[in-house]
Every structure is written in structure tokens, then in C-alpha cells.
């Protein structure tokens, strides 16, 4: 989708929007898959209500992109424009045990920045790619912790009410890879309350998690992390592995040889290859184990 109307382009500029035409989503996602569209980079949170109103008035469909690390985007010319927050400077402000973090901040950078200031708790999230906003939206977690536990306040654009709001931690429910945010809500900033811990101790935790991750996940390859959610009482990776499906491929979309719940783009995989592989594996697991695996990866089909 292209923003072609010069009136709209001028209005976007007046809202401080940085318009990047013909952006490849393959370059903005960790899977390296996705077609082309216009990218609108937001430099001021306060411009968002006017921006959404403007896009609706001009009938321009839009989607909001975080770090693109848990996302499978369709092929070809995409039928919506992409909105993304530009990173502010500074991204993180610490006040005592509170970390005020912009949603565009890199999650790994946030974990290490807080660690250097003797604030811990998020060691498990080291190595999880993406932005703080993306992690918040889906309550990212690993090695026994989830980000939701530390959330005290969230600033967001509430799509239903069309305005900027601040929610307290107890107004949000955080469950396994699920939150009570609306599907179109945009995460803008978060306040985390983190426990005090000496840097050396946090570093040790970070090293252990890094080591576990390196030994069990295909870190150097293009992926979106785990493709399926963990079903109650079972493990998606173990079931796929038990069926001998590691290495199974559709074109360049491939079940990782290292962790069977990671599907990698081993070259020039298309979204259609990846979706076919996902459907195939889901069908085989259901047939063998009677378990219908649910996507963890978010799919934006064209
Ligand atoms: N397993 C196999 N074969 C495999 C992969 C795993 O037998 O190919 C077995 C493992 O040996 C283990 C069990 O399955 O006994 C669970 O595997 P693992 O410890 O790797 O964790 P997981 O349940 O597959 C979850 C999260 C990961 C997170 C890890 C570590 C989900 C869907 N996955 O994976 O998160 O990094 O625990 O905490 O919740 C993600 O969300 O994208 C993600 C990668």
C-alpha cells in the first residue's frame, strides 16, 4: 500500500511522521520474510490519535509493528501501511527501583542497562529478541519468568477509545503469552519495578540463561522464536521432535535441526512456504497426539 495523496503526505509531515516508502518487511522481521509497503515512523507519542484519525479519514489501513521478532508477514505488495515508533533518546530513565522504558527500546539492551544499575529480575529475558513493547504485548517470558510480573504502569494508545491512556499494573491481566490489551492497542511506554541485586549476581544469571539458550535454540538463524504455544501439560518442541520432523521443509522454510518448535528461514523462504509448513506440522501433531497446536507467532497475512 502506498501513500500517494500529496495532501496526506503533507499532513503526515506536519505530525512529525517519517515516511519511508516501499519498505521491505523482510528487512524488519527476524524471519526475513514479508512483502513491501510504506513505513510510517512515529517520533511523538502525542501525535498518534491525530495520525490514526488521519489514516482513517483517507481510508489507509494500518498495522503497528514492534521489533518484528515474533511475526510472519505475507508476501508481495501488502494491503496496509506499517506504523512503528522511532526510538527516543534516552530510552530508559531509572528512578530508584523504577525503570521508565519506551516501548521502542530493545529488550536485551533494557535488561543489561538495568543490570548495570543493579536492577535484576529480568535475566531470563536476555536473548529474547524484539522491543519492550512487543514483549509487553505478549507477556514474553523464559526460564521461569515473565515480563508482566514487573509491570507497574503502561502508557498506551487505546484503539477503542482513540486516546492515550495510562494503565496501572493491576488493571492489566498477564497470562502465559497473553495479555488483556485490545488487539489494536499500541504499547508506548512502561514502568517496571525491578528488585535490587548486585550487578555481578545478575550477570551470573544472564550467563546461565545465555548458555541454556545457546545450547537448545538455533540462535544464528532467521526465526521468529517458537512457532507454537506450549499446550497444557505437553511440549510442542518435544512432540514435533518425537515425530522425527526436524529438518522437514517446504522450500526454504524448515523445522530447525536444533529445536523442533523453531522454524527457520534457511534462505529465501516465502510466507506461503512457512504457512504451509506450519499447517503440515500442526496436522501431523494433531493426528499423532490429539493436540491442536496454537500459533505463538503472529501472522499478518496479505
Ligand atoms: N525438546 C525436545 N526436542 C526439541 C525441543 C525441545 O525434546 O527439539 C524438549 C526439551 O528437551 C525439553 C522440552 O522439550 O524437555 C521443553 O523444551 P525447552 O526447554 O527448549 O523449552 P520450550 O518449552 O520448547 C519455552 C518457550 C521458549 C523459552 C523456553 C525457555 C514457548 C512456546 N516457548 O520453550 O520461548 O525460550 O521455554 O524458557 O513458551 C518463544 O516464546 O518464542 C520461546 C522460544
Describe this structure in words.
The protein has helices at residues 6-14, 48-57, 107-116, 132-137, 199-216, 236-242, 271-289, and strands spanning 18-24, 36-42, 62-64, 71-73, 81-85, 92-95, 98-102, 141-142, 145-146, 151-158, 163-168, 174-175, 178-179, 186-193, 222-226, 249-250, 253-255, 262-265, 298-300. It has 302 residues and is α+β, with helices and mostly antiparallel strands. The strands form six sheets. The protein has a five-stranded antiparallel sheet with strand order 6-7-14-10-11. It has a four-stranded mixed sheet with strand order 1-2-5-3. The chain has a four-stranded antiparallel sheet with strand order 15-18-17-16. The mean pLDDT is 97. The structure holds uridine-diphosphate-2(N-acetylglucosaminyl) butyric acid (EPU). The site of uridine-diphosphate-2(N-acetylglucosaminyl) butyric acid (EPU) has 15 residues, from strand 15 and helix 6.
The distinct bound ligands, ions and cofactors come out as: uridine-diphosphate-2(N-acetylglucosaminyl) butyric acid
Largest sheet: 5 strands, antiparallel
Identify low-pLDDT runs: none
Number of strands: 19
Which overall shape is indicated by the principal axes computed on the Cα atoms?
globular
| Strands ordered across the widest β-sheet | 6-7-14-10-11
Count of discrete alpha- or pi-helical segments spanning 4 or more residues: 7
Give the CA-CA distance, first to last residue: 11 Å
Helical fraction equals 25-40%
Approximate strand percentage: 25-35%
Helix and strand sequence? HEEHEEEEEHHEEEEEEEHEHEEEHE
* Average residue-wise pLDDT: 97
Radius of gyration: 20 Å
Class based on secondary structure composition and strand pairing: alpha+beta
Amino acid at each position: 500500500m502506498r501513500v500517494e495523496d500529496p495532501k496526506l503526505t503533507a499532513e503526515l509531515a506536519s505530525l512529525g511522521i517519517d515516511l519511508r516508502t516501499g519498505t521491505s518487511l523482510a528487512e524488519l522481521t527476524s524471519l526475513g520474510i514479508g512483502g513491501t509497503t510504506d513505513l510510517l515512523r512515529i517520533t511523538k507519542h502525542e501525535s498518534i490519535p491525530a495520525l490514526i484519525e488521519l489514516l482513517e479519514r483517507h481510508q489507509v489501513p494500518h498495522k503497528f509493528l514492534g521489533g518484528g521478532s515474533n511475526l510472519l508477514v505475507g508476501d508481495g505488495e501488502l494491503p496496509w501501511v506499517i506504523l512503528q515508533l522511532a526510538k527516543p533518546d534516552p530510552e530508559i530513565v531509572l528512578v530508584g527501583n523504577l525503570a521508565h522504558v519506551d516501548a521502542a527500546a530493545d529488550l536485551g539492551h533494557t535488561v543489561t542497562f538495568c543490570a548495570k544499575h543493579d536492577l535484576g529480575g529480568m535475566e531470563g529475558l536476555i536473548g529474547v529478541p524484539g522491543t519492550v513493547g512487543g514483549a509487553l504485548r505478549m507477556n514474553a517470558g523464559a526460564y521461569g519468568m515473565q515480563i508482566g510480573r514487573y509491570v507497574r504502569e503502561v502508557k498506551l494508545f487505546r484503539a477503542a477509545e482513540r486516546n492515550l491512556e495510562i494503565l496501572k499494573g493491576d488493571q492489566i491481566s498477564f497470562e502465559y503469552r497473553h495479555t488483556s490489551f485490545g488487539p489494536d492497542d499500541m504499547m508506548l511506554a512502561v514502568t517496571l519495578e525491578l528488585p535490587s541485586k548486585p550487578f555481578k549476581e545478575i550477570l551470573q544469571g544472564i550467563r546461565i540463561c545465555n548458555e541454556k539458550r545457546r545450547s537448545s535454540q538455533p540462535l544464528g538463524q532467521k526465526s521468529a522464536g517458537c512457532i507454537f504455544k506450549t499446550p497444557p501439560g505437553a511440549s510442542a518442541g518435544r512432540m514435533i521432535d518425537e515425530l522425527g520432523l526436524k529438518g522437514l521443509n517446504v522450500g526454504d522454510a524448515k523445522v530447525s535441526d536444533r529445536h523442533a518448535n523453531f522454524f527457520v528461514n534457511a534462505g529465501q523462504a516465502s510466507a506461503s512456504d512457512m504457512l504451509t509448513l506450519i499447517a503440515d506440522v500442526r496436522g501431523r501433531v494433531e493426528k499423532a497426539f490429539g493436540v491442536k497446536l496454537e500459533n505463538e507467532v503472529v501472522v499478518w497475512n496479505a
